[in-house]
Each structure stands twice: as structure tokens, then as C-alpha cells.
Amino acid sequence: MSIKNYFSVLGIEPEADITEIKKAYRKLAHQFHPDKNMETAQQFAEIKEAYEVLTNSSKRQKYLRQWWQHFQSESRHKTEILTCDEALKRILLLEKYVSGTDVYRFDTAGMKNYILAILNENTLNSLRNPEEQRLSEAICFSLMRILRPLPYPFNADLIDLLKHLAQGNETLTKSVEKFARENKSNTLREKMLPWILFFLTLLICIFIWIFSL
Questions:
Q1: Residue 142, Cβ density class (10 Å: 0-12 exposed, 13-18 middle, ≥19 buried)
Q2: pLDDT tens-digit profile of 134-186?
Q3: Which pTM does this prediction carry?
Q4: How confident is the model at residue 81, as a pLDDT?
Q5: CB under 8 Å to 111, separation ≥6 — which residues?
Q6: Domain 1-55 carries which CATH code?
Q7: What region, left, alpha or beta, does residue 68 occupy, with left being phi > 0 and alpha being psi -120 to 50 degrees?
């Protein structure tokens, strides 16, 4: 089953904010309103539908969830040859979805497979082109935002992928290496926190018991 790309319908990027969405809608509504040309009625209906979904937070989140399920299913069955622009748009749309989802209830394994399907060998070969450096950087920074709340063991393969994308770009390589260090450190801290709290509680109980004698 196909799913409409409402962002493409409005001619906007997945990271577009509400102001940009409204601006795009007004421009297209003025251009395709059926009062001017009845032949554009169907196109106007699609534009209006896209606008109503993307400007309503609950409808937008439902749409992004459907989008995620659709493309996750598609990625299991075939390897797509994407342009660098298309790969970036897919990653940005994933970031939009992840940002509004409880990470602890998210299908992280499915997300990992989806990212690897987007950044397959064909896409990586295209992104190695020096002319695509801007897109490589945008993909790397978006992926780091997506992966930030996830634990390091899960992220290991994807961090290696980030390092691969950053090759030849000293500034980006430093950003990826810093992200990897922070991700490991945060994971270790989260693992140690329950034990630290346990021993602090135990220590407090021992002090209370000693002073109560």
C-alpha cells in the first residue's frame, strides 16, 4: 500500500515548521484554487488534505507513524537506489517521527534496519562524491540527533556508519567522535546510576542504624 508524501505535495522539506507549511499552502491555494480553474480541483483537494494533516499535531503524528510503518515494511523487501537528496529527506522525516515518540517504546531494531536500508552501498557511494558533502553533513547531524537517546551497544554499527560518512571532513569527523564518546559515557552513567543510588541508600540506612543505637 502506498502512502502520500504530504511534504512533497506542499513542496516543503520534512523539517519545515508551521510557518513554512502555512506559507507554502497559501501560495499553492492561490495558484490551484478551483475558483480560478475547475481542472485543478483534485490537486487543490490534495493540497488542502496535506495542509490539514501537517498542521494538526495529532493527525501529523498519526501520519508519521503510518509513514514509518510503510517504509519500514518496504525496506525489508527491497533495496532502493536513492538519490542523496531523497536519502536526506527520508532521514529528516525519520527524525521528525522519532522526536515525537517515546524512545523506550520505539522499534529500535526496525529503525536501525531502516537507516541501513537508506544508507546502503549505492547511497554511500553517491555520498562519497565531494559535491555531496553538504548532504553528507546534514545526514550525519540528523542521525546523531536521532541516535542520541539510544544506548551505545545498539548504536555501534550506526556510529561506524557515521564515521564512514565523515571521512575526509575533519570538522565532521571530530563531531562524530565527540558524539561517540558522549554516547558511551551516557550509557555507562545510566547503567551505573541504579547501583550508585542503591549504595547511597544502603549507606544512609547504615548511618541511621548506627546513630539509633
A1: buried
A2: 999 999 999 999 888 777 777 788 888 888 888 888 888 999 999 888 888 87
A3: 0.62
A4: 73
A5: 72, 94, 98, 146
A6: 1.10.287.110
A7: alpha
C-alpha grid cell, residue 85: 537528496
How wide is the angle at C-alpha 169 spanned by C-alphas 126 and 115, nearest 5°?
A: 50
Instruction: Count the residues in the chain.
Output: 213
- Classify 23 as helix, strand or coil: helix
Rounded-to-integer distance, Cα 126 and Cα 122, Å: 7
CA distance 138 to 169: 13
Amino acid found at 28: L
Domain assignments of the chain as residue spans, ordered by start? 1-55, 57-211
Nearest of 156, 154, 81, 157 to residue 120 by alpha carbon: 81
